[in-house]
């Protein structure tokens, strides 16, 4: 992957959206076409849960979770 999991681990305490946005900007400046994904799910207690990650060339480069399919991705904003 373009962003190693070691780099992701070093960002402990930083929220997933901040990591994903930072990664998207960094990759875009390097000439890649990253896709920011934001997914939502209904938690066990009925609360809204959300997660953000970045994909490039069909692979998650930051924000991977073992249960990523738990989240329903929101439509992407292209502009």
Structure explained in plain terms:
With 79 residues, this protein is α+β, with helices and mostly antiparallel strands. The chain has one domain (5-73). It is built from two helices and four strands; from the N terminus they run ααββββ. The protein has helices spanning 5-9, 16-29; strands spanning 35-42, 48-56, 59-62, 72-73. It has a four-stranded antiparallel beta sheet with strand order 3-2-1-4, with helices on one face.
* Shape designation: elongated
Topology as H/E string? Answer: HHEEEE
In quaternary terms, these chains amount to single chain
Major sheet description: 4 strands, antiparallel
- Neighbour order of strands in the largest sheet: 3-2-1-4
User: What portion of the residues fall into strands of 2 or more residues?
Assistant: 25-35%
Distance between the termini: 26 Å
The number of helical elements comes to 2
* Uncertain runs: 1-11
Estimate nothing, just give the exact number of structural domains: 1
Pairing-aware structural class of the strands and helices? alpha+beta
Rounded mean pLDDT is 85
DSSP strand tally: 4
Q: From the alpha-carbon coordinates, what is the Rg to the nearest angstrom?
A: 13 Å
Helix amount, in percent? 10-25%
What characteristics describe this protein?
single chain; 79 residues; alpha+beta; 4 strands; 24% helix
What would you say about this model in short?
The protein has 79 residues and is an alpha+beta fold. It has helices at residues 5-9, 16-29; strands spanning 35-42, 48-56, 59-62, 72-73. It is 24% helix and 29% strand.
